[in-house]
Amino acid sequence: MAAPSIKIVDVVKTFDGDKVLDGVSLDILAGKINFIIGRSGEGKSVLMKILTGLYQPDSGSIFYGDKNLTTARTKDWNALRRKMGLLFQDGALFDSMSLGENVCFPLWFHHLASPSEARKRAKTLLGELGLAEAFFSPISSLSTGERKRVALARALIMEPEIVFFDEPTTGLDPILSSQVDELIVHAQKKTGATVIVVSHDMAATLTLADTVTLLHQGVVVFNGTPKQLSQSDEPEIKLFLSAVNLEN
Amino acid sequence: MNIAVKAVAGIGRLTLDIIFHLGRYGILTLKAVFGAFLPPWRLRGLFRQMELVGVDSLMVVILTGLFTGGVFTLQIIYGFQRFSAESMVGPTVATAMTRELGPVLTALMVTGRVGSAMAAELSAMKVTEQMDALTVMAADPVRYLLSPRIWAGTLMLPLLTAIADAVGVVGGFFVALGRGLDPGQFVGRIEDIVVMADIFNGLIKSAFFGFILTSVGCYMGYYTKGGAEGVGRSTTMAVVISYVIILVSDFMMTAIMF
User: Fold this and answer.
1) Beta strand pairing status for A219-224 and A211-216?
2) pTM across the whole model
């Protein structure tokens, strides 16, 4: 499995006259852990939703490999989405289903496995995440950390080539945060996927990322390695790092 | 002058708003209705919704039909007895139930029970990103969530209405007996006066009401904005708009059909 490279070219997105992304251009490295960081409201999640086709950019292009998906039809997006996994900030688990049904859902929906095969794969995956015993539990009975793990299992069950994490550690205590960090590394190592993490958790960024992109006021102000980020003399970057250090 | 300009601007905005919502509702509903015919077909989802709309609404519909038929008989029997027209009580109850009371009251009750629940459930799914999760899993939320709901409403409302019609006449029958009519007087002329068109047109109306109450519930849920407040607003709006459309369209269909 070779994860496709992702190229973002001059993407602009406006909401109610407010320019959230203002000409963002970026190369996402295939098979690596890519962090997109920035303060709240800087357009990180919007960029992620554009990359998953949930939002259309006002202008600019998104390339997966050599395919331009900006003007692609839903059918083309859906073909690509079968190779994607997304861990939503709050899990976005289906309340009407049990834990196991949530994880099996993508396989059932696309008829990619028989019910027994899907259950077997889900149980194996949940076992790796420490939730094998809770297969039939209702979603309402899960803790925040467990929800994150179930959502991760659901995102990984299709063995995606690209995995997105939207603010994976927001609202979690330090122990849970480090567990989720381990899950991100686990996901990348297990599948060799391209991982894109939207976050403002600097500790995780500096320890997990292969590349870091800093968004500020809708533009990319930094793109490089975590080491280059921490050594940068750019005023915006210094301001962001000091603000984050104060928060932490 | 300033007030006049503001008033015209307000009317213009309102008109544009209405056109916008009608257009968006039309497109969403067309996608949901015709999307159901595209493979892969998901009959399990349809049957589940038919159970929720139909089987689970049975008790409330039976009670509504029974007491509506009963109270209608109570109201008319007094007047009919004064004109020695007791034999017209049964046909009048049957005509009213099949043409109007059965379809409309069933639709209103099911809107309160099912239309609001659909709007609330879909709204909650929207604000908690469950619909986005479906989209990212290449599962079209319109076909997966909306199509079975709208078809279930359209198919099940005529069945519920038929039950309400029958139960309403039975309710009227027992009330009439209690008021001194004999069974033959109540039943005797129903067959002469109530024609099949009364029943079928009532059922056609109820299928339309089923479509309205589910599609409006789905529309309000699908386009919910905001958090818990948005869920509450969408649910309330779904019920209010469905009630208004059902009552207005009932008038228009009745004028055309009968």
Assistant:
1) antiparallel
2) 0.88
